[in-house]
Design brief:
Elements: E1 26-28, E2 34-40, E3 54-58, E4 66-68, E5 74-75, E6 80-91, E7 100-108, E8 113-114, E9 124-127, E10 134-137, E11 147-151, E12 160-161, E13 166-169
Parallel strand pairs: 2-4
Antiparallel strand pairs: 1-2, 2-7, 3-4, 3-6, 5-6, 6-7, 7-13, 8-12, 9-10, 9-11, 11-13
Length: about 170
């Protein structure tokens, strides 16, 4: 699938369906950051998605780019199982259940990144089972889940990495 021209992709917009862009479509902005088009799933925990939350793919019963920040999503009806080892990207809009939007895959973070409060400069970032947050470790071999980036600065007192202070690299 070819990338959507960036001028056509409105990264902060929320969509009712995938008629504007196909699920899994990709775009790249003028700085080289890459994004993927996702469908939001609130998960079993009924998690609200805010800008900057890490989104995970769901099990094989769902489309490849249906995503949730609910790292503890392991049941419910229908069953929704988040896969912390399958990060999709950082949400670029406040999404509600069943809505569509963009998630950042690569480059300097365009939105704040939510953390578990343990991040220092230079740490490798990886997902957690805490809703939409990242954790970190100095040694990549000790990452609990798939690595999603690197902290260029420490997180702040609000457990956030400010815009432009994390390099995201979700493949």
């Amino acid at each position: 699938m070819s990338k959507i021209p960036y001028g056509n992709a409105l990264l902060d917009d929320i969509y009712d369906d995938d008629s504007q862009y196909p699920l899994g479509a990709e775009t790249e902005d003028e700085t080289g950051r890459e994004y993927v088009f996702v469908k939001f799933n609130k998960g079993v925990g009924n998690v609200t998605c805010v800008k900057g939350m890490l989104l995970y793919g769901l099990d094989s019963a769902y489309p490849a780019f249906e995503a949730t920040p609910d790292g503890n999503s392991t049941g419910g009806s229908p069953v929704t199982i988040a896969i912390p080892n399958r990060p999709i990207g950082l949400a670029q809009a406040v999404l509600t259940d069943g809505k569509y939007g963009w998630a950042q895959k690569t480059g300097l973070n365009r939105q704040i990144v939510y953390t578990d409060g343990s991040i220092t400069q230079g740490m490798i970032l990886f997902g957690t089972t805490d809703d939409g947050t990242v954790s970190g470790h100095a040694n990549p071999g000790n990452a609990t889940y798939t690595i999603v980036g690197t902290a260029l600065e420490a997180d702040n007192a609000s457990n956030q990495i400010p815009i432009g202070q994390a390099f995201i690299n979700i493949l």
